[in-house]
Every structure is written in C-alpha cells, then in structure tokens.
Amino acid sequence: MLEIHNLCVHYGDATAVRDLSLTLGDGEILTLVGPTGCGKTSVLRTVAGLIQPAAGEIRIGKLRIDSKRNVPPEKRHVGLVFQDFALFPHLNVEDNIAFRLKDRAPAERWLKQLGLEQHRHAMPDTLSGGQKQRVALARALAHAPALLLLDEPLASLDAALKAQLRWEIRQALKAAGVPAIWVTHDQTEALSVGDRMGIMCDGRLEQIDEPDACFRKPASRFVAHFLGDAAFLPGELGSTHVHTALGDAPIGDVAHSPDTRVDVLVRPDDLSVTAANDGNGHIEWSRYEGETRLYGVRLNSGAQLRVRTNHEHQLDDGAAVDTRICAGHALALFEPERPTGSA
Ligand SMILES: Nc1ncnc2c1ncn2[C@@H]1O[C@H](COP(=O)(O)OP(=O)(O)OP(=O)(O)O)[C@@H](O)[C@H]1O
User: Any idea where the ABC transporter domain is (predicted)?
Assistant: First the structure.
C-alpha cells in the first residue's frame, strides 16, 4: 500500500532522514519511535506531501513521488491527525467531522463509533483533550483516507487518558481497515499499538519488526536501551545455554560457536533478587511502583543492575542479596564491546 525506498530528506544543508526504506501493508499500523530530532515527523511530512524528498521514492498505491515527481497533498488521499487536534474552532463536533463531505453517513458512523454522539452539537473549545482527539480522528476516518498519518496524537493528554485512548484509536483504525503510520516518542505506546514498529536514530531506521521482536531481539545496543532498562552481562556460549556469573539462560535458535564470548542483554524482569548473606551483592535503593517494585542492586563485582519484582516483595536498602537470571526465554546476545583504545 505504502512503499518508501531509500528516502532522504534535507532542510538546506542539514539531513533529517537518511536512506530510509519501509513498506506498509493493507490495514497495518506501523509505529515510528525514536529520540527527539531523529526525523520521525520529517518522514510523515514527506509522505503527506508537505516536503519534497531530496532522494528516494515514495509509492502510495499507484502514485509515485520522488525528488522530481511531485503529487500535491490533496491528491494523495492521506489523512493527518496531529497532537494539537487542528479542529475548526467555529464548527461544532458534527460539522467538524463532516467538513467537505457530500455524504454525511461516514461522519455519522465515526461520530457514533468514537462515542461522540452526545457531544455532536458541542463546540471544540468546550471539549476535553481526549474528546478533541476523538473528533480529529473521526474527521480523518470519515474522509476514507487511503493512508492515515498520526503525529504524536496523544502527546498532550494525561497518562490515564493516553492508555485508554491509544486502544480506542487502534480499534478504530482496525475497524476502518486503514493503514497508518503513528509517530510517537513514547516507547510503551509504540510497543503496544503497532502491528510493527520502526525505531529511528539520527535520520536512520535502526530496526523495523514486530514489537515483541524489537524488544526481545534488539538490532543494536541503542535499540535495547531505547526500548527499556537494559544491562549487559559478560557470558560464554555453551551448547544450549549462555553461562554468566548470575546463572544460565537458554540461547534459542541463534547460530553460534561454543565458547564464544558474548554480552547478554538482561532487563529488570529477567532477574530475581533474594535475601542471602552469602549472596553476590546488596540493595542500594528501591522504588515502589504500585504493582511492582524496582531495586537497584550493587553486585560485589561493582556492577549495578536493576531488578523488578512483585510489589509484595520487600527488601531494605543495604540488605545482602543474591541476584540471578530467572528468565526462561532466550536472551539477546551481543558482541562484547571492546574497551576504548583497544585494537
Ligand atoms: N523546517 C525545518 N528547518 C530546518 N530543520 C528542520 C526543520 N524541521 C525539522 N528540522 C530538523 O530536522 C531534524 C529532524 O526533525 P523531525 O521534526 O523530523 O524530528 P522528530 O524525530 O519528529 O523530532 P520530535 O520527536 O522532537 O518531534 C531535526 O534535527 C530538526 O531540527
């Protein structure tokens, strides 16, 4: 449906997007995530037709766009949903949604589907942030776009509303069968609403895959750190397991040569911590998180790790503990980093 091949976007002499390629299937939701300034919005703006590519090609259905061949935004059948809602302040909810529609039936469908019926006569400035974003989404979907681009749609909403609305938006997109690129800087949002996710860094796509695959098998240390707490333990590969000072973990189906040295990615929930006077470290700090508790553990080796446990678990700061790998699944393996200055 959408294909992007080797896209480059420039602003004057500065490069915002470098050699980016991706495809989007029918009805697929792709989340695009990355640190501020990595080029996410520039990708969206180029697909929408607000910026001309410096190099590469974009195909939207049968349309082809490149540095010499432009298609104006209104001919691309691309819908846009922004962080600031961009509603018409002088039109009520139903007129916002039905704006420029000859047949109002789709507007009525999305008004009802997104729970806006009781607000149909309300003016935008009397709506909450969540209601405004539902109106913006209903308006975009009522125009039956071939593709929807969402730029940080939940960024201005509070945490509880974000969690609820992201599922409503995902369900609406799936009900409409519209493929979408959803830009966010929120890792949890990107992991939970995308069929696939793309992680960008400095204008490049570092990895694109299903969220579970990106989280479990990050393509780089950058992705590992960006998607959550990440620590790397030195390990040595055996035939079925990798051996570390904190215990063994299965290797999975990774091709490997035995005795190879690796770094093993461990996240706080891959580790357990128990009180033990003859253990391998002590609790430096703990943070109560509601359902869970996060511990900072200082190992006797000097390394610091974070360990997440159930909230009922309680250990005091300074307590002697033993920390072990408890993950039953294969952990991601990386080549050991060479110390700075070594050959
Ligand atoms: N109109 C512009 N003129 C010049 N440089 C720009 C312009 N818009 C963006 N940039 C630069 O291009 C790079 C990519 O910006 P972009 O907005 O695409 O990143 P982003 O990942 O969406 O960031 P954020 O998460 O902060 O919105 C940044 O270095 C930014 O400063």
Answer: 2-227
> Which of 7, 41, 82, 156 for mutating ligand 1's site (highest number of atoms within 8 Å of CB)?
41
For ligand 1, atom 28, name the residue with the nearest CA: 37
Q: In the chain, what is the greatest distance between 2 CA atoms, to the nearest angstrom? A: 76
What confidence tens digit (pLDDT) does each residue in 124-140 have? 999 988 899 899 999 99
Assess whether the C-beta atom of 38 lies below 6 angstroms from ligand 1: yes
Multiple choice CATH, 231-334, 3.20.20.70, 3.10.20.340, 1.20.1300.10, 2.40.50.140? 2.40.50.140
Full-model pTM: 0.90
Q: How far apart are CA 57 and CA 55, in angstroms?
A: 7
Residues 6 or more apart whose Cβ sits within 8 Å of residue 245: 233, 234, 280, 301
Q: Is the CB of 36 under 6 A from ligand 1?
A: yes
Give the tens place of pLDDT for each residue, 51-81: 999 999 999 999 999 999 999 999 999 999 8
Distance CA(258)–CA(273), nearest Å, equals: 29
Which amino acid, residue 175? A
Give yes or no for a contact between 178 and 141, defined as CB atoms under 8 angstroms apart.
yes
* Helical segments of 98-250, H only: 105-113, 129-142, 159-176, 187-193, 211-216, 221-226
Ligand 1 atom nearest to 203, measured from its CA? 14
Residue ranges per structural domain of the chain? 2-77+145-226, 231-334
| Residues with Cβ within 8 Å of residue 108, at least 6 apart in sequence | none
Q: What is the mean pLDDT of the chain?
A: 92
- Residue whose CA is closest, atom 24 of ligand 1? 36
Q: Assess whether the C-beta atom of 18 lies below 6 angstroms from ligand 1.
A: no
